[in-house]
What we know:
The chain is of the alpha/beta class. The protein has 3 domains: about 1-55; about 80-90 and about 290-464, 2-Layer Sandwich (Endonuclease, Chain A); about 100-275, Endonuclease, Chain A (2-Layer Sandwich), CATH 3.30.870. The protein is built from 17 helices and 17 strands. The protein has an 8-stranded mixed β-sheet with strand order 8-16-14-13-9-11-12-17, sandwiched between helices. β2 (about 125-130), α6 and β3 (about 155-160) form a beta-alpha-beta unit.
Amino acid sequence: MDSYLSFHGLVVALSLLVYVVTAHLLEQRRGPTAAIAWVLFMLLVPYVALPIFLAFGSRKQARPRSAQGQHVAPLPPGGSWALQTLHALGQPAPAAYGDLQIHADGREALAALRRCLGAAQESIDLCTFILGRGPVGQGVIDTLCEKARAGVRVRLLLDGMGSLMAGRPKLDALRESGASVVLFVPPLHSPLKGRTNLRDHRKMLIVDAASASRHLWSGGRNLASEYFEGEPGKAAWHDLSFDLGGPFVMQAAALFERDWAFANTERAPQEMPSEAEARGAVDGAPAHGAQLVASGPDQVDDTVYALLLSAAYQARRRIALVTPYFVPDAALLMALCLAARRGVVVDLLLPAKSNHPLSDIARGRALRQLAQAGGRIWLAPQMLHAKLAVIDEQLALAGSANFDSRSLFLNYEMMIAFHERGDVQRFAAWFERERASAHAYKAKRPGLVRDLAEGMVLWVGFQL
């Protein structure tokens, strides 16, 4: 018995040592909840916790020392809080864009997707989390094959985990047509490199990036039937996507190049496009265009999280949020509650029942706290997969990031910050159309079983 206890104590000590050393050497910054969860896991079941930590515990890529702690020059006077925040977070400067189309529904989104693919003359760069095996996914593959055979450079970057979640798509024909296909961190990738838990959740289709006719299709939709027109007997999910052209597209193209290089274990480009190439500013004054907000292990900061946190404190009139999964950390939840208490209208729209039951359980405590603080919560009758934040009439933030711990702290995500007042209002109008069919959430005191279930799920909430 004594020998077993000694061995057990040694394993616990080794597990904790690995955790501390890894966190120090890789400078892994975790929230208190996640850190406590890992430590408790290792104390209770170190034989299980240690291998899981080695496989899934990585949160940030290691980066050169020269890239850390760099001084960011202040933005010229006159920029909004959003511009100042994004500049401080090292994101590219605002860039001009044109012909923004916010898709009204799945059919319009699919038509825009097909139009963008059909217009490609030189290159197609496509990054998605899920490529379904149904009509939509197969249609995209068929079009990519046709374009590749016609001499267009086609590159498909598909997340390794996402490729399993909807069933592996049939990609042999695509490779045979001359297209390049890469899985971002394949599921059987060696856990010793610390990348098994990294998921590329970004969604972007970039067409003819090197030409004046460059175009971007993006948003929250994966390339599967449920995100567009649905399936027989199953209604389509509601989601948010959009497409646009102009110099801004270069920022998305640069981000794709970095992700492509990482997935191919190549040296990635170190910088986003220079301000002279892709911002549309005049005489050094900040432009009121759009900015790409990249979030994930490739960023020094948790950029989307930091921007949402700043927005909650900077908002003066209204915060409108749409997300399928709402599992915020304590700091973000407090910021939203404080905004509601000081008179800001905080509207949160999410599905009454999402496709992830654990997230629906985990969100209970946050919803009750926000409702108690005066926030208005709206539950949509259909599955709502959109990701959107509208702050006053200053900022619309749309893209791939859910407002939960996995998206905000673990996944590779991509949001676009729109600063043009008219387009911010267009995103706000999209929010109101979706809210029209929703019903108000009424907070209820949970029973003992529900309260325990929420606590247990939140214990692993950093992985949801």
